[in-house]
């Protein structure tokens, strides 16, 4: 039986990840930066540990090593970008021997997590996926406002730091950031967000893609009502891009669909998407096949499925009762 450490179990993807791992017979250990009584899924795991912030690399490394040794962890499923960044950059000997972190190879993550590098990658890609023209903000500081643009950090996540510039005053504010070298600028493309969950085998022998249009989203970009799509053209382009990037397991591509129907690539999230449960419900076991990819096992084919609408709701749980 595998023991899997699932990080950030207060995040949107945690519920289906924990549930499916348990169904597959794994013992699941969870952690989160908040105490157990603040996190409903702390009641769904065999053991819970409150974690330091992953941005504090030294403390986080010690924490993860300690949990792995105490709990007998052999697999780690990071659920957020900051944790993926940590594990992608930590030395190979930072974890106990025999522990596998279930994320894509370091080279693939370094491209996916840098919007400037990803734009350059797409410029020469043969996948058919095309990005939005991208420039460093530092190169545009002396230019006057001429048309709507978007400014965002090169390593931004969940729309953090993103600014839509629609007028000269917005442009002045966008250029006043402390470190312009950390930002990119792109023409503003507006339209619905289309996101694609992609699962790829470690040897590249099979790759599966499930797209959905996000009809309602939270402010940090998590879909709450979606339309799961059957779009073989988009899916084929995403499979080809996943192969070129060399990603392994489940990742997520985001696009904006403009009025002319073209899909403009936004970013690759090299982790489970916040809405991965939509894909699991409608079409494919993303969690189980992510696990298989890192165990070196063949992943499942994608069976035919039907387009459908799925809406998410929230539930309340009593996590702790004080006194009588």
User: What is the typical, i.e. mean, pLDDT?
Assistant: 94
Span between termini: 39 Å
Low-confidence regions: none
The largest pleated sheet is described as:
7 strands, mixed
- What is the spatial order of strands in the main beta sheet? 6-15-14-11-12-13-16
Description:
The protein has 324 residues and is of the alpha/beta class. The chain has helices at residues 14-23, 57-71, 81-89, 106-112, 115-123, 168-174, 232-245, 276-282, 286-294; strands at 3-6, 27-32, 47-50, 75-77, 100-101, 130-131, 135-136, 149-153, 163-165, 183-187, 193-200, 207-217, 223-228, 249-257, 263-269, 308-311. The chain is built from nine helices and 16 strands. The longest helix has 15 residues, at 57-71. The mean pLDDT is 94. A hairpin with a 6-residue loop joins strand 11 and strand 12 (207-217). The two termini are 39 Å apart. The chain folds into three domains: 3-103, Rossmann fold (3-Layer(aba) Sandwich); 109-129 and 190-311, D-amino Acid Aminotransferase, Chain A, domain 1, CATH 3.30.470; 133-187, Dna Ligase, domain 1 (2-Layer Sandwich). It has a seven-stranded mixed sheet, with helices on both faces. A five-stranded parallel sheet has the order 3-2-1-4-5, sandwiched between helices. 39% of the residues are buried.
Summary, kept brief:
The chain is α/β, with parallel strands linked by helices and 324 residues long. The chain contains 9 helices and 16 strands.
């Amino acid at each position: 039986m595998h023991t899997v450490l699932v990080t950030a179990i207060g995040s949107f993807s945690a519920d289906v990840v924990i549930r499916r791992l348990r169904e597959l017979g794994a013992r699941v250990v969870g952690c989160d930066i908040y105490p157990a009584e603040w996190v409903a899924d702390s009641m769904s795991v065999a053991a819970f540990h409150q974690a330091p912030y992953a941005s504090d690399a030294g403390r986080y490394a010690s924490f993860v090593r300690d949990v792995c040794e105490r709990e007998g962890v052999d697999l780690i499923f990071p659920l957020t970008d900051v944790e993926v960044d940590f594990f992608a950059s930590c030395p190979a000997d930072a974890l106990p021997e025999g522990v596998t972190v279930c994320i894509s190879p370091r080279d693939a993550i370094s491209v996916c997590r840098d919007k400037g590098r990803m734009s350059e990658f797409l410029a020469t890609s043969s996948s058919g996926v095309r990005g939005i023209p991208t420039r460093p903000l530092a190169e545009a500081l002396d230019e006057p406002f001429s048309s709507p643009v978007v400014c965002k950090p090169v390593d931004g996540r969940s729309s953090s730091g993103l600014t839509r510039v629609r007028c000269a005053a917005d442009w002045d504010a966008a250029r006043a950031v402390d470190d312009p070298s950390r930002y990119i600028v792109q023409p503003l493309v507006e339209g619905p967000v289309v996101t694609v969950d992609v699962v790829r085998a470690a040897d590249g022998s099979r790759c599966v893609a499930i797209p959905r249009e996000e009809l309602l989203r939270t402010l940090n970009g998590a879909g709450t009502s979606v339309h799961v799509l059957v779009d073989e053209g988009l899916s084929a382009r995403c499979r080809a891009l996943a192969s070129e990037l060399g990603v392994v397991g489940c990742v997520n591509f985001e696009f904006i669909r403009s009025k002319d129907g073209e899909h403009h690539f936004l970013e690759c999230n090299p982790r489970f998407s916040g809405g991965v449960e939509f894909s699991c419900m409608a079409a494919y076991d993303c969690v189980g096949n992510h696990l298989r990819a890192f165990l070196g096992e063949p992943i499942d084919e994608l069976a035919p499925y039907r387009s459908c609408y799925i809406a998410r709701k929230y539930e309340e749980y009593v996590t702790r009762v004080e006194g009588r």
